[in-house]
Amino acid sequence: MGSVDANKKLQVLLVGSGGIGTMVAYALEKGGKAEVAAVLRSNFEAVFENGFTIHSVDHGEVKDWRPTSILDSIPSVSEESWRAPYDYVIVTTKNIPDIQPQITNIIAPAITPGHTAIVLIQNGLNIERPFFSAFPANPILSGITFTGAIELPPGTINHHNHERTFIGVFDNPIAASYSQKSRAIAAARRLVDAYTACGPEVDCTYEPDVAYSRWRKLLYNASYNGVAAILGMDTSRMRFTEHIIDDLIRLLMQEIRATAKAAAGVELEEKLIETMITADGYDKFFKPSMLQDVEKGRFIEFENLVGEPLREAERVGVETPTLKVVYGLLKGLQFKAKERHLEDVVVPRSGEGLRYGGCGKS
Known about the structure:
Elements: E1 10-15, H1 19-31, E2 34-39, H2 44-50, E3 52-56, E4 60-65, E5 69-71, E6 88-91, H3 103-107, E7 117-121, H4 129-134, E8 140-151, E9 156-169, H5 178-196, E10 203-206, H6 210-231, H7 235-241, H8 243-264, H9 271-277, H10 289-295, H11 303-316, H12 321-341, E11 345-346, E12 355-356
Parallel strand pairs: 1-2, 1-6, 2-5, 3-9, 6-7, 7-8, 9-10
Antiparallel strand pairs: 3-4, 8-9, 11-12
Helix pairs in contact: 6-8, 6-9, 6-10, 6-12, 8-11, 11-12
């Protein structure tokens, strides 16, 4: 990240202003150390006309709130010479690498080489690798958040779990020099400072061990998230049944724990399994994000949550039979979602493969 005037507000572009993204933008703006330009899609008209309505467990009731600017597309800093370079581009969209276009291509016009820090507040493993290749001169930061925030209807954010966010630096083998790593750490710490300036209601800290924090969250996401999508069941009902926990969730967590140690040298304490199993109370009836996406007919972000841990396990020879079955079932769900999103599908005759036409009618 290039030099930033400490007396000026950080210039932040937020990509993905749904539930989580909007709460990130609100905290940064409320702290007074950043100006946020939020890129909106399906909710653009609702927010442009009425602002956001936020019902927050941390911030209370907020009406008619808008970030510094609202955009309906990614700005180009090279073509719009009047626009100051962004200090940070924060990505809070779902991570779906098997669906085009890729986020690296989407955000590229807003990135100033050697200056803009890219912050991935997204779930999953190895999500940083495409960004290392696409933006070798830029810091790539990890953001992990534990919170619950849903946008429903468009422009209305229901923020129902207290926020804990961890910002750190991905270990970039391409940027091996000490100066590049120190610049990335400085960028992460400055973002944490701007984030926490909004007050004690936000818990945001610098995370020195990104690998540990990502594998730790995978204990939950590679188990509850995928199984919920497959079964169409919230986490409370899974716990009520008991056998789903004992025969699926616990086994998946054990496989993730073994893979973390063998593939990354990450020691996840055994007690974390019970902590994650009981993370959602019996009274919460919480629907993990993948289940919500299945119910809405959307694509699911299963590759980095389940596929990447499975591939890491295969690379180092760790047996993960339960994870492999879950991955296969999720691939089937994604295939069905892709069918629904195509306007022109050629149904095969017996013995033929499925052939897809273009997305438009011929």
